[in-house]
Design goal:
Elements: E1 2-6, E2 15-19, E3 29-39, H1 41-48, E4 63-70, E5 82-85, E6 95-99, E7 104-105, H2 112-132, E8 140-143, H3 149-160, E9 164-169, H4 172-180, E10 185-188, H5 195-206, E11 212-217, H6 224-228, E12 231-239, H7 253-257, E13 262-264, H8 275-290, E14 298-303, H9 307-315, E15 322-326
Parallel strand pairs: 8-9, 8-11, 9-10, 11-12, 12-13, 14-15
Antiparallel strand pairs: 1-2, 3-4, 3-6, 3-15, 4-5, 5-7
Helix pairs in contact: 2-3, 2-8
């Protein structure tokens, strides 16, 4: 089969389409023909060496497809089942093997491209808004990268929970997308000369000087200082990524001075620990999609052979919504 292989970490050009053996399934696994695989920032962190992964490896954690074969001990899936996953390494490939813990049944009402686009970012948006900082009616949240894959889904889920959402974006097109997802106010950060001082000023102008109860920040280094200073007293920073770079160490006394602030650095795996929790989160998402209550934007698709171009587009902030690869 064909798969993208990284033999050494570095720029996107280190990825190449390669012939590799078909994966072997264990007795408790299923073999899946991949219909689409998702491209995420964590893939770029692993490819670049920001996150350590032993080389050679095939990037990708997320996708959707159809079960081709099952192991001898599998009684939870059958050939022909439509499934999706979000944490299976090696997903930039024509075939993958899945365990029960990372195999989500996709309802017939949900397209496989949509399922692939929804898994990692949708589950992230769900645990952020329902668990990391559970939003309630009347609260106000600041969501960075409001037109990105997580941002668009998180905005919709937050609004559905009764929250007011303020987002940051960098263009007219992205502002329109963010507002269509339900953002009450949109801040255009590309106009700032100093994010650390101008972002809090803009947020407080929109909140009568109070600030927001929570900031959901997947951008990291470039927004972190401004995000902290945008929080209301006893507000919470939910730092869930570092698209602009990782946040350096800082003095925790700053949280005291800022108004008894809290900060959390969640990871999705810690919010998918049981069958019940996985079923709850995926069930909420698929049901919302099937009912037309959650719009999953697929911003760009590339053939698997063009994974380099997909990474360049993602890291160059030239995409909105989800980026998919088609084997």
């Amino acid at each position: 089969m064909k798969a993208i292989v990284v033999t050494e970490t570095g720029d996107p050009q280190v990825m190449s389409l390669t012939d590799v053996p078909d994966p072997r399934i264990g007795p408790a696994q299923v073999l899946v023909d991949v219909a689409a695989c998702g491209v995420n920032y964590i893939d770029t962190y692993q490819r670049s060496g920001t996150y350590t992964v032993q080389t050679p490896f095939t990037p990708g954690l997320e996708g959707a497809g159809v079960v081709a074969a099952v192991g001898a001990d599998v009684d939870w899936a059958a050939p022909g089942d439509r499934v999706a996953w979000c944490s299976t390494a090696g997903s930039y490939a024509e075939r993958v093997t899945l365990s029960r813990e990372d195999c989500y049944r996709v309802p017939e009402a949900v397209d496989l491209d949509v399922a692939a686009a929804l898994m990692l970012q949708g589950l992230t948006a769900h645990y952020l808004s329902a668990s990391s900082f559970p939003l309630h009616p009347g609260q106000t949240a600041l969501v960075h990268a409001g037109a990105g894959g997580v941002g668009l889904l998180l905005t919709q889920l937050a609004v559905a929970r009764g929250a007011r959402v303020i987002t940051t974006v960098s263009s007219d097109e992205k502002e329109q997308l963010s507002r269509a997802a339900g953002a009450a106010d949109v801040i255009r950060y590309e106009r700032f000369r100093d994010m650390a001082s101008e972002l809090p000023r803009a947020v407080r102008e929109l909140t009568d000087g109070v600030g927001v109860e929570v900031v959901y920040d997947g951008v990291g280094a470039s927004t972190f200082d401004g995000s902290l200073d945008s929080l209301a007293v006893r507000g919470t920073m939910v730092l869930f990524g570092g698209a602009s770079g990782q946040v350096p160490d800082f003095n925790l006394q700053r949280l005291n001075r800022g108004g008894s602030l809290s900060i959390t650095r969640p990871s999705m795996g810690h919010f998918l620990r049981t069958d019940e929790e996985r079923a709850w989160r995926a069930g909420d998402l698929f049901s919302a999609v099937a009912a037309g209550e959650l719009d999953v934007r697929i911003g760009a698709t590339f053939p698997l052979a063009e994974a380099v171009a997909a990474h360049e587009a993602l890291q160059g902030r030239r995409t909105t919504g989800k980026v998919l690869l088609h084997p």
